[in-house]
Amino acid sequence: MASLKDLRVRIASVKATQKITKAMQMVAAAKLRRAQESAEAARPYSQRMGSVLANIAAVVGDGAEAPRLMTGTGKDDTHLLVVCTGERGLCGGFNTQIVRLARDHVRRLLADGKQVKILCVGKKGYDQLRRDHANLIIDRVDLREVRNIGFTNADAIGKKVIALFDDGQFDVCTLFYSEFKSVISQVPTAQQIIPAKADSEEAAADTSGATYEYEPDAGTILETLIPRNISVQVFRALLENQASFYGAQMSAMDNATRNAGEMIDKLTLSYNRQRQAQITKELIEIISGAEAL
Amino acid sequence: MAQSFKFELVSPERLLISEEVETVVIPGADGEMTVMASHAPLMTSIRPGVMTVNMSGGKAERYVIFGGFADVMPESCTVLAEAAVHVDDIDRGDLEQRIADAREDLADAQEDDHKQRAQEYLDQLTTLHGAILPA
Question: Which residues fall in a coiled-coil region (chain B) (predicted)?
Fold first, then answer.
């Protein structure tokens, strides 16, 4: 049985831990709000982008004019997986969930005899994937220094992906990130970005209007629009991820704070019991000593 | 009074304007153009330049935009800007950085086609620089 002093030290240490987790929870809550706001602020752009793209795609069609980024290379031998995770831990199963989804995907592709290449965005995903698939990782992007994710960060990743595609390094590109549903629910998601799938519903809604005029012409616009769209998708994924990360961290830290509270209660109880036992023992000693006289 | 229509300016980060406006002057790829209500459906790419928005209230706002697209419909107009800054908030350093980047791109360009595009972009940026920030 631990001595009274040991228990006191233990309680003090758990209390200190609880303070830290509590502070982290509150920081995560504040950051979550900001991340959520920026994710929402970015939504109009990607929506408009989607409808504009669907619009032009409907005009250009699948003909020879359509850029390769949209139609694909016609093969699906080599897959590029862009795995977006957080830079930090202490966020429950957030990183692990994304990595697990990516890993399952890799296994399935490898079993089908496809080639797989991985581009890691974020440190944690890289650390976890390195264990099993170090030979598949071709590059990693570190966002550790970045405080607020801006479009430029996403654009850099998008350009990297497109450069690889133009180089003939892969045929299909899939983006892995965690979609932010709510504070307590983040869903790991896989989204195919190359070849781009135009949303047929949106296209149907938009082409009801009159025919467009294009300046300079539809093909040229599409050529610049599609790479942009890839960057936008990456940007959206990063923002969703950011919000999910803070959501996950907040609930993880909330749990930790609560567990610490329970632990303190338990330790305090056994501390008090032991103190009481010691007092009783001392009393008995005194009384029996007095009776012996 | 001129008829008003719905105008939206969105950058990847956020929605900058969503208002009823009378006219918008857009620096289109093939030249500046003024969009008014009931314009024929048009899609154009945008070169770096200054966009003037004349609100229904008679107020005019000027924004510097760095490339993007404009989607014009009879009853609405949406500008998807790569980056957009209000003229008052423009940062000289940022613009100069962009010009420096464009110069590098030009130096790196190998093929003629690419080189020409880089040159055009650089020219547009320097023109913009001269127009809004008289030395």
Answer: 92-119
Residue A197 is predicted with a pLDDT of: 65
Which residue of A lies nearest to B72 if distances are taken between CA atoms?
A212
Residues of A within 8 A of B8 (CB-CB) are 44, 48
A-chain residues near B14 (CB < 8 A): 38, 41-42, 44-45
Q: Between B12, B28, B41, which is nearest A211 by CB?
A: B41
Give the nearest partner residue to A221 out of B13, B15, B45, using CB atoms.
B45
* CATH 2.60.40.10, applies to B5-87: no
* d(C-alpha A124, C-alpha A82), whole Å: 14
Q: Provide, for chain B, the percentages of residues in helix, strand and coil under a 3-state DSSP scheme, each rounded to the nearest 5.
A: 30, 45, 25
Q: Which of B6, B14, B117 to mutate to test the interface with A (most CBs of A within 10 A)?
A: B14
Find the mean pLDDT for residues A185-212: 67
Mean pLDDT of chain B: 83
CA atoms within 13 A on the CB side of B122: 16
Q: Is B25 helix (H, G, I), strand (E, B) or coil?
A: strand
How much of chain B exceeds pLDDT 90, in percent? 10
Decide if B44 and A215 are in contact by the 8 Å CB cutoff.
yes
pLDDT digits over A248-285, tens only? 999 999 999 999 999 999 999 999 999 999 999 999 99
| Strand (E) or helix (H) holding A12 | helix A4-60
Identity at A6, one-letter amino acid code: D
Q: Which domains does chain A have, with CATH numbers?
A: 4-21+254-292 (1.10.287.80), 35-249 (3.40.1380.10)
If one counts every other C-beta atom within 10 angstroms of the C-beta of residue B97, the result is 11
Provide, as residue numbers in chain B, all residues whose Cβ is less than 8 Å from the Cβ of A238.
Answer: none
ipTM metric: 0.74
- Residue positions counted in chain B: 135
Of B37, B39, B69, the residue nearest B51 (C-alpha): B69
Active centre residues of A (catalytic): 91
Q: Is there a contact between B41 and A214 if contact means CB atoms under 8 Å apart?
A: no
